Amino acid sequence: MALPQPAISSKKLLSALLIPLFMALLAVSVVNVALTPIGNSLGASSSQTQWVVSGYALAFGVPLVAAGRFGDATGRRRMFILGITTFTVGSLISGLAPNVEVLIAARVLQGLGSGFLNPQTTGIIQSNFSGQARARAYGMFGTVVALAVIVGPVMGGFLIQLFGESLGWRMMFLVNVPIGLLGIYLAMKWLPNDRHAADLGSNPRRRHMDLDPVGMITLAVATLAVLFPFVQRSQNLLIWALLPAGILLLVFFVVWESRYKKAGRPPMVDMDLIKEPAFRNGILIVTLYFLGNTSVWLIVPVYLQSHMHQSALVAASIGIPSSILSAFAAPWAGKRVLGAGRRMVMAGFICSMLSIAGAMAMIGPVESGAVPVWALAIPLLLLGAGGGLVISPNQTLTLKSVPTNISGVAGGILSLGQRMGTAIGTALIPSIMYGMVAAGYHWNIGFAAAFGGILVLLAAGLSVTFLDRRREVAENQQG
Asked: What is the DSSP letter of 198?
């Protein structure tokens, strides 16, 4: 008879989860300041250095749902450790890469590691926390996301300044190795060993674990086909032909999963989960939020550097106050979200919309010199408050009623919505500004048009949140 495991404090468990998550998220933002040094050091073209970013983004998004399913079925702790290990090996190879081809391959390995561990984080939180404690845990999750955005570019710039271009960008990857080793140790020590018997589905005679391989492969290929054109941002029409092919594969996936369940076998994604209004609306809300919001921190630096001729450091610093406020807003919201419900997410969208409108109004005075460039950070502060009130609270409310045995898959779907929103938004929204400028319009017109697009997307997200609030009120009255 197995001895019961000693109880692990919630602080230790969260530390074991959030340190590797911080490391993985840092890898997204830190590399943006290193593309030029990487190109100079390895003699790489701009398209090759872009794949240092794109390879990670694709590899991060593709395995999310399948990794969640593996964790749910076989144990989340070992999938989490596999993710950290894969990421750490990728970091080591990245730091030692002799050429850009090896670096791109290593970044893909890093992305896979992030994709493996990300849904396990959600699954472990869902399984080990409930009620207010779970909401607070997701609040800390949001704080880690915000801090990674702040620390990444600053740490990257510091390492390049300290070690020089050729060694500095390598140190950005190598610093992950000791953090990864620490993450593996803490996961083995503080995460509950949840390895359990194979998922045999509803048929007790089935001897082998049924992980729905057709469903897994179909969704992975469909995700790759949908994401690839937006991440690659190519003018080649053949590449964009992948998009409708990916959508058709998603339709096939839904049909396959439904039939798989009717046959008495465990589907990778139970379509009843998607039919649940709170979950479905939450996925749509977060996707619309990321479609618009993530483009802000691409548009503002490009505008300030290309039009206002500001340094990269000044352009990056504009977003720091917003990120700091987001780091404080997320845990604050986590303590109150269960009482406020969707009203808190609505408040977050309103803050974000006011921020975008304020930045549009501020850009004229900034360009004319009536106010200093750093004044643009004032309206963008509200964007940080909005993020803190939307992301973690939406995660808490969306996953509130999800059964713990499928919480890894649910977390993978939620993360996939964020990845999809980010990839599509950062391809489409900046192209509005570039297109307007290329057509001969003033930079301010291009900036306003791009931010106007963000405003429309945030308004759509607010509308969905309002509708879900009505559902929430009706359910509370019935309860």
From this structure: -
